[in-house]
């Protein structure tokens, strides 16, 4: 009888068994493929990783953010993974694998290695584009706007032209820091390159205006969004509400919400609710009462955090 403890001394036998299991299973979902790829990667069976990466595309399953979870912070499996990806036939399977690997490395905060993979993609001419850089820009922009700008510069060097999402990551980072001069330069570049603004572009610009207490500029941008038919994000309105309240313009904050009310019930619920909670926390009870009454008249539910705030408030407003 085979001693199970003794069997662990024969890794080649175990590897062959694992390889056999990979080759005989028929994955039916992207999640199933991810599980098999990660099991193969952890066991060191990169021939199975290669086969699975190829077959998943033939079967119509895209890679996901979990495809390369076998790569951990120590990057022990990175070099073999890169060699495996280089051996893939040029096409969607290869590009998709590289893009997923970049996403994994970005999430692990290994920006330098993610950029290295991007350069490999460019050198191999396997379809690198702005989307390949989105995960890098996403994580880098949260930490350092100037470093994110450096990623944009690298994209240009390898002839990958930033799209609106690429610009938005960096623009938001600058606006969060209140660096409007840098933000304006970036917007000028977008205009020169014919990049059309979207909701997140305007959201970043409104945030930047509010950060430097130019809420009037934020209002102008909101008006431009309406004129151009660009839908506003919830956060775009919240930036203005919060800044008006910080500046002590309580009545103007109420007026702002009322002016934009009636277009989108979900937006109304968010804006009225945030405004009422903030007014209660600021002990502006008369203004809060006005907002709550307006919510009732519009059939907006007073629930969740707002309901908790009302209960704490000793004004005994009730729900009639």
From TrEMBL:
UniProt superkingdom: Eukaryota
Q: Which UniProt keywords apply?
A: Repeat
Q: Which InterPro entries match?
A: PPR_rpt, TPR-like_helical_dom_sf
Name of one Pfam family that matches:
PPR
Q: Is Aminoacyl-tRNA synthetase given among the entry's keywords?
A: no
Q: Record keywords: Transmembrane helix included?
A: no
PANTHER family reported for this sequence = PENTACOTRIPEPTIDE-REPEAT REGION OF PRORP DOMAIN-CONTAINING PROTEIN, PPR_LONG DOMAIN-CONTAINING PROTEIN
* Family to which this protein belongs: Belongs to the PPR family. P subfamily.
Q: What is this protein called?
A: Uncharacterized protein
Q: Which organism is it from?
A: Daucus carota subsp. sativus (Carrot)
